[in-house]
Here is the input.
Amino acid sequence: MCEIFSFLIALASIFFFSKIFGEFALKFGQSVIIGELVAGIIIGPSFLGIVSKTQILSSISELGAIILLFEVGLSTNIEKFLKAGGWALVVAFVGVIIPYFFGYFIFLYFGGLTNIQAIFAGAVLTATSVGITARVFMDLQFLETEEAKIVLGAAVIDDVIGLVILAVVSKLIIGGTITFGTILSISGTAVLFLILSIIIGVLIVQIFFKLILKMKQQHVTLIMGIVFCLILSALSIKVRLAPIVGAFVAGLVLSTIKQEKEIKEKIEPIYAFFVPIFFVTMGINVDINVFNPFVVSNREILVLVGVLFVVAFIGKILSGFVVLKKNINKLLVGISMVPRGEVGLIFAGIGLQNNVFNAKNYSALIAVIMLTTFVTPIILKSLISKKKNDSIII
Amino acid sequence: MCEIFSFLIALASIFFFSKIFGEFALKFGQSVIIGELVAGIIIGPSFLGIVSKTQILSSISELGAIILLFEVGLSTNIEKFLKAGGWALVVAFVGVIIPYFFGYFIFLYFGGLTNIQAIFAGAVLTATSVGITARVFMDLQFLETEEAKIVLGAAVIDDVIGLVILAVVSKLIIGGTITFGTILSISGTAVLFLILSIIIGVLIVQIFFKLILKMKQQHVTLIMGIVFCLILSALSIKVRLAPIVGAFVAGLVLSTIKQEKEIKEKIEPIYAFFVPIFFVTMGINVDINVFNPFVVSNREILVLVGVLFVVAFIGKILSGFVVLKKNINKLLVGISMVPRGEVGLIFAGIGLQNNVFNAKNYSALIAVIMLTTFVTPIILKSLISKKKNDSIII
Here is the structure.
């Protein structure tokens, strides 16, 4: 009875504080995710200590990550991919490669990490958070511009690239030695799994979801959609990919069926239940004490955070300047790609779980992700209003 | 990684088979709950063995019971209680007392149970399932009749009586000795907790949910409603009541606020996610082997199931005959009260968890509950169509 008591109290605290701090974040023009991370840091063991890490909480938070990526997949329209065009692809690749390699080398030579650790840490910095940027664009009615289309396309593509990198990197953790051949075979398997599960998945769901149309129970479509997501997530684990890869593919595949809208509508409250648990748990895992500047041994971490932040920031800005197209505000594109979010946090979490990172590395990465998310909306708002003023003058 | 793999597969199997067998149940005019229980028996260790009992599954299933009772509370209108009138109250009390005491004595003298075990087992037989009866009435367009109002009123009231009995009984498990004084003090505490949490709760939510109206995040009302439910559930544990008691009260209290409809609408997909997990898990816990009639030692269990079923059946039918009102089909009222469901299953589950029951007693009780649910719709349909024919002739 005592166990269920602490479980209920933990859930209640997570929900309550996520909403309170999420609201504060909104008030200060920040993303709700920041509020949820801060909520986790505050109720976690490094501060108030109301909620501690438990097996059940980590399982439910993993389910939260799965539902999050399922939703991202559902919202990712394959057609829009193509419409975003080649520039989105270029921006995505450059924006992945630069922060990845600089992150890797900094971690390797200054962060004191091993080769595999550094490879994993670099991966954390790759994926732009679609959510945060889309939110800022939406608030400022900027979604229909050329810049917004490139940025959102690129953000979705670098999610996919990120997932492939994660697939490769996760396999490396288990394996050990790295040659160019192994990297190639691993990325090959990952890409093959993605392509095959998309093609076979689309065929299966087209037939299956026509069959269940006849079923009379409520919420059949929703629950069967979740079943498909869970099965693909489990399959990903079997081919040594992260479960979120399968969840994303499941969402992508289900976005092609007729009942897509029903699933998206009904998954919303389930998303509202599980996803904050994921972000708050990420915060709970952060050890705030490693940032105490009065402890001498912590100072190198603060320097590491600073350097990584600069790399994460500049790497994405450079990706904007590869767009060789007229009338495009390249700086605006670059800045829009800066915020890291969900996917980076998931990578960091997987690294922590598999003992690739210790508490210090993990907390440094979370800090960098949070910093990118703090600064972007502020810069972006001023850039967009400047651009709007300019076009009025013209 | 392996642990999360089996967790995902377990969830997928539970969802998939619950929908498949739920659909079969509907096809054969049965309640979906029966389908979910059968799904659990089939995928559980006593049959296919796809899903086994784990700590995380039992925690999530407990959360399912909490959300189920929260929803029952939300759907229980305090005004309708009063409108159902005195007869509903009488029917409820008689329908609780007769099966309870007969069940108690049969378990004590023929079932080989101890005093406390028998008290608990009697409680399992008390509460009518509002869901199943309401569903049959709805299907046959019988909801607006005098009989239906009495039955639905009584079914809700005996849920509340059942929860009070559970409160008393749960305390007895921990205590031990039973005198009339202890029973009185325990029921006193339980009733006091119910009354106080309703009164204080209503005051708190009126103010709190006005305050959060200003919050801009999505689903704030839903999540804060769940927070309130979780806190009251945890509080119930602190005063040694079952968490579902608090969940029910939370629902009842929240049914008085303006945003009630929003919470009820949005809780639906969450209900669709968690509640089947609860029922399927109930089925997973059933040991089907104890019903094998070729094993001699099992025959007493089959006899016990038979006797208990007769008691459970006749006890509720008698409750219909206390309605001393003209133009009321007393047999119809009685039969309508026969199906046991959610609350009985929850009681049985709590009994199993606290080692009040062994696998045999537990499985016998589940069998009785399932039998009451199997037979009622069949008898009820013929009674209602006979009554409709009669009134046409007149």
